[in-house]
């Protein structure tokens, strides 16, 4: 009987396996993949953040589940993975934003905040007696008229995206983005694209009860969470467009036959 390949190498965060892997970091990434889907889309007019808040029980109040957070007036974050870990990261991000405002008398840059947060994430992969954060964040904001969208990783890695997704529906959502994302999207188009991606990731089970959307428009640079009525209106438009497209495809197939 051969020993397991990772036997012993996943017992501490500070131990590399012979092939250069940190298994505890990979396990943290798996925790993120098991979370519900969160979406971020950047467009010339601003940033759109959308999250899926599906619950496992009808007894849970969906309004009590927080996955969208306001970091500063001009920055927001969407999370996936362990909720408690995400909340700790968000609190740290808020503190960093306020420290920058007090020290320099100006709002923090979006990329600076993302890097500071990832520096903290990286420390938790290099010290004994701690574990990596089992959560990932999509950080979006507007600074000096520039729209920025970043994705963090439990390892501390940081990547800037035009559109991205984290959580269990990442692959389905990224396929939608690869096919339908355009550089000249309006805010409404970006919201529609985000909802299309979530609808695909949730296997067409999207309602205003399990979806939240926040936008940060370039014109005012303010984080705003959309009301439930607005979300319902956007979802209805997206679903009606998808139904009409399906009908067109069916009609074309029948005509070919």
UniProtKB/TrEMBL annotation:
SUPFAM superfamilies linked to this entry: N-terminal nucleophile aminohydrolases (Ntn hydrolases)
Signal peptide range = none
Q: Where is the Proteasome alpha-type subunits domain?
A: 9-31
Q: Which GO terms describe its molecular function?
A: threonine-type endopeptidase activity
- Give the record's free-text account of how this protein's activity is regulated: The formation of the proteasomal ATPase PAN-20S proteasome complex, via the docking of the C-termini of PAN into the intersubunit pockets in the alpha-rings, triggers opening of the gate for substrate entry. Interconversion between the open-gate and close-gate conformations leads to a dynamic regulation of the 20S proteasome proteolysis activity.
Q: What are the BP-aspect GO terms?
A: proteasomal protein catabolic process; ubiquitin-dependent protein catabolic process
Residue spans with biased composition (Acidic residues)? 239-257
The record's section on Gene3D superfamilies has: Glutamine Phosphoribosylpyrophosphate, subunit 1, domain 1
Write out the entry's keywords from A to Z: Cytoplasm, Proteasome
Q: Where is this region: Disordered?
A: 236-257
Report the superkingdom from the record: Archaea
Q: Where is the protein found, in the record's own terms?
A: Cytoplasm
- GO cellular component assignments: cytoplasm; proteasome core complex, alpha-subunit complex
According to the record's subunit comment, the protein's assembly and interactions are: The 20S proteasome core is composed of 14 alpha and 14 beta subunits that assemble into four stacked heptameric rings, resulting in a barrel-shaped structure. The two inner rings, each composed of seven catalytic beta subunits, are sandwiched by two outer rings, each composed of seven alpha subunits. The catalytic chamber with the active sites is on the inside of the barrel. Has a gated structure, the ends of the cylinder being occluded by the N-termini of the alpha-subunits. Is capped at one or both ends by the proteasome regulatory ATPase, PAN.
Show the NCBIfam families listed in the entry: arc_protsome_A (TIGR03633), PRK03996.1 (NF003075)
Similarity comment: family membership: Belongs to the peptidase T1A family.
The task this protein performs is described as: Component of the proteasome core, a large protease complex with broad specificity involved in protein degradation.
**Under what name is this protein listed?**
Proteasome subunit alpha
Organism (species): Methanobrevibacter millerae
């Amino acid at each position: 009987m051969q020993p397991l390949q990772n036997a012993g190498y996943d017992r501490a965060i500070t131990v590399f396996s012979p092939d250069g892997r940190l298994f505890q970091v990979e396990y943290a990434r798996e925790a993120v993949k098991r979370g519900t889907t969160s979406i971020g889309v950047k467009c010339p007019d601003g940033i759109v953040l959308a999250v899926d808040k599906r619950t496992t029980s009808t007894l849970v109040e969906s309004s009590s589940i927080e996955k969208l957070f306001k970091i500063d007036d001009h920055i927001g974050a969407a999370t996936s993975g362990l909720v408690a870990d995400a909340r700790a990261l968000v609190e740290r991000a808020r503190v960093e934003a306020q420290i920058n405002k007090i020290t320099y008398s100006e709002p923090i840059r979006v990329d600076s905040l993302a890097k500071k947060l990832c520096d903290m994430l990286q420390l938790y992969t290099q010290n004994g007696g701690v574990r990596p954060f089992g959560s990932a964040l999509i950080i979006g904001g507007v600074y000096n008229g520039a729209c920025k969208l970043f994705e963090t990783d439990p390892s501390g890695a940081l990547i800037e995206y035009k559109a991205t997704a984290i959580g269990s529906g990442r692959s389905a959502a990224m396929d939608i983005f690869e096919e339908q994302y355009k550089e000249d999207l309006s805010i409404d188009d970006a919201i529609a694209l985000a909802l299309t991606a979530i609808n695909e990731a949730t296997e067409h089970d999207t309602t205003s009860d399990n979806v939240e959307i926040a936008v940060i428009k370039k014109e005012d640079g303010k984080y705003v969470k959309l009301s439930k009525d607005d979300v319902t209106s956007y979802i209805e438009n997206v679903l009606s467009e998808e139904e009409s497209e399906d009908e067109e495809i069916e009609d074309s197939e029948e005509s070919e036959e």
